[in-house]
Design brief:
It contains no helices and 26 strands. By secondary structure, the chain is mostly beta strands. The protein has a domain of 149 residues. It has a five-stranded antiparallel sheet, with no helix packed on it. Strands 21, 22, 23, 24 and 25 form a five-stranded antiparallel sheet that branches. A four-stranded antiparallel sheet has the order 5-6-7-8, with no helix packed on it. The radius of gyration is 19 Å and the shape is globular.
């Protein structure tokens, strides 16, 4: 039996979003997790523990319409006491399959399921409610992107010298290879350009400050940004103040959006601005600023989507135009509810 879609209220504010709903499940002996594909009207996918925000409960994959209506839970991997947290989902062009970063054990025994526990990668077929393991937790997959045109998956994970490198592989897990193989440098969070031929990524050298680079070939990469004025380290992260991180291409491939760590803030999440730069490294522009935590941005045909957490702990999924104007909140959740990794669906 297929899982029954779990809808959440269209007016999703504060605690309203954390309400669960009744479901039916697959045969527990069938060897699959119940899933539902995103509806034809859904525009954005994200991960959250809104269904159950208790400590130690992991995030699941959700989808929502651009208006904020019909937020729907798509995965149920953490049911019946199973340990599972889905941190990020990148869908293929068919909207039926996605690669999902998952944590499957609390290896550091801190009562939370985070990237520090080791991130695996799974391929999920949402229509058939079946999935296949692509990479184990030891791969420490810190980011993933599925190229719609070239049908190639790129990801960052444990590599040379124990630091992240960038890898590419086929959606079935074949032809997996390290394409940066550097020591002493962290290459993270790659995103493929709209032509499916090059990628943009964040690069952190011995100074600890992140920069945005473009990957052309194994022998050819180019720096686009050099970050802001270097400052103190943000605890429990790879970043110092001034770091640039989490780039993504505009739909036409001519501009890149990314985030920059401006200040430590309360020292937990930091204050991040959103910025853009042209693909030739010119035209550096701040489009969203102010004392708030902002997650990795994703640029689609109808704007740039990201999460924003203010001083009151409430988190919103927000869409803005490429110049930062026309701010449109999509969802809002109360303090204590995790919501992250929003991305436009193909």
């Amino acid at each position: 039996m297929r899982a029954r879609t779990c809808f959440l209220p269209s007016a999703i504010v504060a605690a309203a979003f954390v309400l669960g709903c009744a479901r039916t499940y697959d045969n527990p002996f069938a060897g699959s997790n119940p899933t539902d594909p995103p509806s034809a009207a859904a525009s954005i996918v994200f991960t959250s523990n809104a269904h159950n925000p208790r400590p130690g409960i992991g995030r699941e994959v959700f989808a929502v319409e651009e208006s904020g209506a019909n937020a729907t839970r798509l995965t149920f991997c953490g049911e019946a006491g199973a340990v599972c947290s889905s941190l990020e989902a990148s869908f293929g062009a068919d909207r039926r399959r996605a690669v999902v970063r998952r944590v499957l054990a609390d290896t550091d025994s801190d009562g939370r399921l985070t990237g520090a526990d080791g991130e695996s990668l799974v391929l999920v077929d949402f229509e058939r409610s079946v999935e296949a393991s692509l990479l184990p937790a030891g791969a420490r997959v810190s980011a993933v992107d599925w190229s719609a045109l070239s049908d190639v998956i790129v990801y960052s994970g444990a590599g040379s010298g124990g630091l992240e490198d960038i890898y590419r592989m086929d959606p079935n897990g074949q032809n997996n290879r390290n394409i940066t193989t550097t020591t002493g440098i962290r290459e993270r969070h790659p995103r493929v350009d709209p032509t499916g031929s090059i990628a943009v990524f964040e690069r952190i050298d011995a100074t600890g400050k992140g920069e945005i680079w473009v990957f052309f070939t194994t022998q050819a990469q180019t720096r686009l940004t050099s970050g802001g004025a270097a400052g103190a380290a943000l605890p429990l992260t790879a970043y110092v103040v001034g770091s640039d991180a989490d780039p993504d291409y505009s739909p036409d491939g001519r501009t890149i959006v990314f985030r920059r760590l401006r200040a430590l803030g309360d020292g937990r999440l930091g204050h991040w601005d959103l910025m853009t730069v042209r693909a030739d490294g010119t035209g550096l522009t701040t489009i969203v600023s102010g004392p708030a935590y902002r997650d990795a941005p994703d640029w689609g045909p109808r704007g740039i989507v990201f999460t924003e957490t203010g001083s009151d702990g409430r988190t919103e999924i927000v869409i803005v135009d490429p110049d930062g104007a026309n701010r449109r909140p999509v969802l809002t959740v109360a303090s204590g509810v995790d919501i992250a990794a929003p991305r436009w669906l193909p």
